[in-house]
Amino acid sequence: MSLLDDPKAAFADLSRPEGWVLGVSVAFVLFLFVAMLTGALGPTYFLFLVGLAGMYALLSFGLNAQWGFTGLINFSVAAFFGIGAYGTALMTASGSPIAGGFSPLVGLAVALVVALALALLIGIPTLRLRADYLAIASLGLAEVVRLIVLNERWLTNGSAGLRGIPGFFDGWPVLSTFPEAMPGLRLEVIPGSPVILETAFWQASLNVLLVLAFAGAAYFVLRRAHRSPWGRVLRTIRSDEDLARALGKNTYSFKMQSFVLGSLIMALAGVFYAHLNLYVGPGDLDPITTFYAWVAVILGGSGSNRGALFGGIVIVTIREGTRFLNDVALPIDPAPLRLLLIGVVIVAVMRYRPQGVLPPQRELIWPSAVGGGGTPETPDSGVRERKGGGDDE
Amino acid sequence: MSEGALPKEDAVLRVDDLQKSFGGLAATDHATFAVERGTITGLIGPNGAGKSTLFNLISGFYEPDGGTVEVNGTDVTGMEPYQVAEHGLIRTFQTPRKLEGMTVREAMLVGPRKQPGESFLTLFTSPGTVAESESANLAEAERILEDFEIDHLATQPATDISGGQMKLVELARAMLAEPEVLLLDEPVAGVNPTLAKKLKDQIRRLNEQGTTFLLIEHDMEFVMDLADPIVVLDQGHVLTEGTPEGVRNDDRVIDAYLGGGT
Predict the structure, then answer these.
(1) Residue-wise over A325-359: b if at least 16 C-beta within 10 A, else e?
(2) CA B33 to CA B14: how far, in whole Å?
(3) Is A229 at the interface with chain B, CB within 8 A?
(4) DSSP assignment string, A289-321
């Protein structure tokens, strides 16, 4: 049932935590909107935040596909993120020591291919072994990748980083000139505090469009995969790998698929970041990114795609929201409290809601195979065809 | 020694001279026997006789040090468990395996082999096929749950049912994999007598429908009533094989159980 078909039933269907999350999110969006109208929050900066939220959502989607679905412990989220960012930056940036000047689409492709190669490289030796070996190996991998990026100056420019990365849509018809072509708008909803929308704003909205496309595609793929027999095998592996093997599932292959899928989504986040920030440096591979992604997934509820989305947004809110606490007169400087705050949140979640805020709740069977009210009757073929094809609810 | 003495015309599982040691302990010591198609073969033996090790060797979870395992005439020695399963041999475990976050019918759906929806690409290239097979599998799962008289549990969380019900679900799920030979590791351990009887009836019914069983069981009454022939394992090798009657009256079997050696 989609929201559009039957909004009332869809709302009645929400569990209490879902209702809470929905309520708080709506209130939060309204708050941001008001802040924007009053000029407290610049619209361009707001769109930048939306971009960051999308980026963290992508990272947590990727980790969720590995940890949440299959139980793979990957501590090299930052490495795959960095590979994505550097992959596209090295191809497109004017300051690239090796290639440079290619279209961002080439950058995207190269980033994904390198991430795929890296995922296979680390997956092949470790995924046959017990779960802990991947954890250890990936922890090492993250440092290796970071140190290579930092030290191999001929390849990556070392600590100077890469400058001159074009926007993702540079060189595209229409979209590349879209920000300049749009007129500057001056909205004055509240007298005295005009909201000015100019080139930078339109540039930022293109970035948001990009991240929405990336995250939307990732979400669509993961959602369908999660409810499929494929996802069911992954969840079986997470609970009990031996059982899956005894039932004839090639668990090594399934684990590899899940690992590669997650890694590619993380690299996608890196690609977006490079074209958002227009500069990448070795600092972007710091392990903190890995831990932000983990916090987001655990907070949202392991195994839940919307939980990962929610977790990603919360992380950005905490990370960026603490900047504004500076404006409020506090006796101490609150920005360094960011990590403490994240720690407090995770402790609170573990204590009061260990399954996460939005854990996967309903049973996950290919939607059209289960009748609307949970009756096991096989739907007639017409219904099945239609729903099986498009409806991903 | 009358190892695997009975003649086997049509063996669905053939174990020949299988060996496995853990350090200095020969857990499986030149074990040889066969399971005739259509039978319920019992595998008994005192604690530490190597029954579970033998199961793990047959199903591919352990790599044997020597000897061969044949399923349906194909040599499956040294294959991965999933490959052994593909040849028609499915096993269950001594302790029921819990699938967290799944409902009973969802956990059942892990059973069917070669589901089109288990291929990641098919999910996007041909969702109609996936939906079709999922509907068929779900209907089949519901039917089997009904046969097992546990259809009322279908939408219960798989972790919330009793140990005995888990054993039933496990057996039901194994049937969804359409095994030619099903290895049951202590199907009634820790199961109350009512459910044990139910399990026995189910195994018998499935056997009549054509599934071959090999089962480890400590409950002598259960196994003597259900299985024929019975293979007796002691210290890693096959001590004898025969009808329940014959095994019960075999002095060597009694010695093995009572620890006599003379």
Answers:
(1) beeeeeeeebeebbeeebeebeeebeeeeebbbbb
(2) 6
(3) yes
(4) HHHHHHHHHHHH-TT-HHHHHHHHHHHHHHHHH
The DSSP H or E segment spanning A205 is helix A199-226
Cross-chain residue pair A228–B123, CB shorter than 8 Å = yes
Question: Which residues partner with B70 through β-bridges?
Answer: B14, B75
CB of A174 within 8 Å of a chain B CB? The answer is: no
Q: Considering CB atoms only, which of A232, A244, A385 is closest to B109?
A: A232
Q: Which residues of B touch A245 (CB under 8 A)?
A: 60-61, 80-82, 85
Q: What angle do CA A251, A306, A53 make, to 5 degrees?
A: 110
Can you name the residues that pair with B71 across neighbouring β-strands?
A: B13, B74
The secondary structure element, H or E, covering residue A80 is: helix A77-92
Domains of chain B: 11-98+177-258 (3.40.50.300), 99-158 (no CATH)
A268 within 8 A of A54, measured Cβ to Cβ: no
Neighbours of B229 (CB within 10 A): 22
Q: Please tell me which of the candidates B85, B115, B118 has its beta carbon nearest to residue A246.
A: B85
Q: A277: helix, coil or strand?
A: helix
Is residue A249 one of the residues assigned to a domain? yes
The two structure tokens encoding residue B34: 């066969």
pTM for this entry: 0.89
> Is A308 within a domain?
no
Q: What confidence tens digit (pLDDT) does each residue in A61-110 have?
A: 999 999 999 999 999 999 999 999 999 999 999 888 888 789 999 999 99
Between A256 and B257, whose confidence is greater?
A: A256
Q: Which of A2-6, A62-66, B5-9, B171-175 has the lowest mean pLDDT?
A: A2-6
Q: Which helix (H) or strand (E) holds B32?
A: strand B25-36
Domain containing A184 equals 46-286
Cβ–Cβ contact A380 with B under 8 A: no
Between A288-300 and A43-63, two packed helices, what is the crossing angle to 10 degrees?
80
- Test mutation, B91, B134, B183, chain A, max A CBs within 10 A: B134
Q: What is the mean pLDDT of chain A?
A: 85
3-class secondary-structure state, position A7:
helix
Nearest to A248 among B86, B102, B119 (CB): B86
Cβ pair B128:A384 closer than 8 A: yes
Q: Is residue A319 part of a domain?
A: no
Per residue in A102-121, pLDDT (tens digit) is 999 999 999 999 999 999 99
Chain B residues lying within 8 Å of A226, measured CB to CB = none
> What are the helix (H) ranges across chain B?
51-58, 81-86, 104-108, 122-125, 127-147, 163-176, 193-208, 220-226, 244-248, 251-258
ipTM over cut 0.85: yes
User: Position of tokens 């958002």?
Assistant: A276
Q: Cis omega before residue B229 (within 30°)?
A: yes
Tell me the two tokens of residue A79: 């490495």
Q: Is residue A165 part of a domain?
A: yes
